[in-house]
């Protein structure tokens, strides 16, 4: 059990100890990861980390004290807006990540409804079941009801189902471009037009796609409209720390205009510490994260991101075609870009993930239906063949020597047979407890 240290330690020894801590961490540099880290090469990493270090102790809470941070944040917002076809009315803020961006857009919708439609006492939002849990989490905090409509056979939002779910208390609809589980883009244009006709806000969750899809489109792939080029879109979230390759802790939330965005703000006027106005959830904010985001966008530019998109898309096609050509395996749906998942009708899908993890490949488990998930980054370019080789071996081996699921594979298997998935809540709570238990 760690006690607060009496004496300080030598910095070299300290840092080398911390290096050892990392031995069993995710192997993202080698492209062994299915998610969590978006590594675009050492040159990108060096620029981002140098910018981050240069602004290490700055605080984005006080733009007056740091005009440099203020400038870079404003730049990142307008660069993101121009990438996503926003006009001059579009405004936004940087946040710590997709969850905070989504939280702010829902808080904005809630407070706007309170102001403009006081007759709505129990506001709700309508989303597809594939929407990221950040929406459930935000609704949980904000006292908004979340109405989730099952996705269609192709894992996209069910247009008619979504329309039918809207009622007089609906304040916002949302869908993803693309969604996290299966990497497909929802019918943003149809849904947003419908929302507009009902005078409902429409949020596009482009946390994954915001800094990816525009470039995938530019290199010639068929990508449907998903951004401010659609009239009914009133807000968007796009993560710089995903396919923008920015430092962890960077996302953008954008609004169609300042009239909507004003409901996002928090202002306190009676604190003895002075006037306190805050645009987003965080108080103090890492100026370094903003600097890192500014640096990476300017380092790569449209040209650089297009080159990355070429690599990502070619590699993703290799994964998808390769997996589909292995007997017993199948990619789920038709992924629009480089995020996909696959399953097996022949084996317990989770067993494949379990056996792959023994070969150091780290794939996330999906459920409803079972699947294994991978988001392709430039780091995967040189390992896709090896991945497919290992996958073939795992499948052949499981066919010859069937065995029992362990650990997570066993848990997901058990969960599938529960009458109510919420029965696992106490288990997950215990797991979360265990994470902060002293070693
Ligand atoms: C990652 C993600 C989020 C949440 O973003 P965080 O940065 O993890 O908070 C929301 N929506 C989608 C589609 C995502 O992929």
Would you give an account of this structure?
There is one protein chain. 41% of the residues lie in helices and 14% in strands. The protein is globular, with a radius of gyration of 23 Å. A hairpin with a 4-residue loop joins strand 12 and strand 13 (371-375). It has a seven-stranded mixed sheet, sandwiched between helices. A four-stranded antiparallel sheet has the order 10-11-13-12. It contains 14 helices and 13 strands. It binds pyridoxal-5'-phosphate. Pyridoxal-5'-phosphate is lined by residues 97-99, 132, 134, 176, 180, 205, 207-208, 239, 251.
Summarize the entry for a quick read:
This protein is an alpha/beta fold. It contains 14 helices and 13 strands.
Work out the strand percent.
Answer: 5-15%
The SSE order reads HHHEHEHEHEHEHEEHEEHEEHEEHHH
Q: What is the general shape?
A: globular
The termini sit apart by: 6 Å
Please work out how many helical segments DSSP would assign. Answer: 14
Counted beta strands: 13
Bound molecule types: pyridoxal-5'-phosphate
Largest sheet: 7 strands, mixed
Gyration radius from CA atoms, angstroms: 23 Å
Helix content: 40-55%
Overall pLDDT, averaged? 95
The residue ranges in which pLDDT falls below 50 over 5 or more consecutive positions are none
Strand order of the largest sheet: 1-7-6-5-4-2-3
Structural class: alpha/beta
What brief labels describe this structure?
four-stranded antiparallel β-sheet; 41% helix; alpha/beta; 439 residues; binds pyridoxal-5'-phosphate; 13 strands
